[in-house]
Specification:
Length: 300
């Protein structure tokens, strides 16, 4: 079988079990009614638009979960960039099994392929800045969504609430300000001996100045999130505030831009000198990649 990222197998097993139970229920009545038990088939995967393949290893496990005797072969790999009309793999075996697995395999490949394709387009436009995803993923599918982002050539931000301190506007408001929030973070990280990155959001020049004063005073901040500093105007995107912020930071910490990030704007944002550009659009507004599975049946 194709390899999966470390740690994904257990999560994937549980996801596939739930998804198959949701779809199959007490049985595929249409397939059972129309396809004799003794029928075998070969089905071929077809890419119907230009894009980045993602989810081949996942689809392979869908077929194995339905019927361990199904034979899957690929002529391409996860992360490959292919043109519309390309046939990139096949599955051979019991026709009933193929038809039961078909929709779940395609659903996952189409979602992951859509994410990977978007990630590639954003990454190309944003260079030299690095594009990051966010936590705006489909519940229960975060590991797959974030894997698809990597396959497309962008990078992952934090996986969840546990692997990074990210002080955002509501934390700042509840803590009593930027400085108070960062001091509280420093105490908490020290007391609990945490080895996690620390990032803080700045929405205004005053907040950014407070972050930089804290950094100069020895309070740990690894990255500042410059939120909504690229502003849409009647004449287009104004990145002057973002450019000013990057100059003010002057390399003291990493910089990340968010807000108003689209495929049309990410190039201008990336050109301001920020290190990273983050966007939830990679995963929360994904358009499925058009992949189909064409079945050819042969009675034996």
């Amino acid at each position: 079988m194709l390899p999966l990222p470390d740690g994904l197998q257990a999560d994937l097993d549980a996801l596939l079990a739930r998804a198959l139970a949701e779809d199959l229920g007490t049985g595929d009545v249409t397939t059972e009614a129309t396809i004799p038990e003794g029928t075998r088939a070969t089905a071929r995967f077809l890419l119907k638009e230009d894009g980045v393949l993602a989810g081949l290893a996942v689809a392979e496990r869908v077929f194995a979960a339905v019927d361990a005797d199904l034979e899957v072969e690929w002529t391409a790999a996860d992360g490959d960039v292919l043109e519309a009309g390309t046939t990139f793999g096949s599955v051979k075996g019991r026709a009933r099994s193929i038809l039961v697995a078909e929709r779940l395999a395609l659903n996952l490949m189409q979602r992951m392929g859509g994410i990977a394709t978007a990630a590639r387009r954003f990454a190309v436009e944003a260079a030299p800045a690095t594009v990051l995803d966010t936590r705006k993923t489909a519940p229960g599918m975060r590991a797959l969504d974030k894997w698809a982002v990597r396959l497309g050539g962008a990078q992952n931000h934090r996986v969840g609430l546990y692997d990074m301190v990210l002080v955002k506007d509501n934390h700042i408001a509840a803590a009593g300000g930027v400085r108070a929030a960062l001091e509280a973070v420093q105490r908490h990280v020290a007391v609990n001996d945490l080895e996690v990155p620390v990032e803080v959001e700045a929405r205004t020049s005053d907040e950014l100045q407070a972050v930089l004063e804290a950094v100069d005073d020895g309070i740990r901040v690894d990255r500042v999130l410059l939120d909504n500093m690229a502003v849409r105007t009647a004449s287009g995107l104004d990145v002057s505030r973002l450019e000013d912020a990057v100059r003010l930071v002057d390399g003291r910490v990493q910089t990340e831009a968010s807000g108003n990030v689209t495929l049309e704007t990410v190039g201008r944002i990336g050109a301001t000198g920020v290190d990273f550009v983050s966007t939830g659009a990679l995963t929360h507004s994904v358009r499925a990649l058009d992949v189909s599975l064409k079945v050819g049946l042969e009675s034996i």
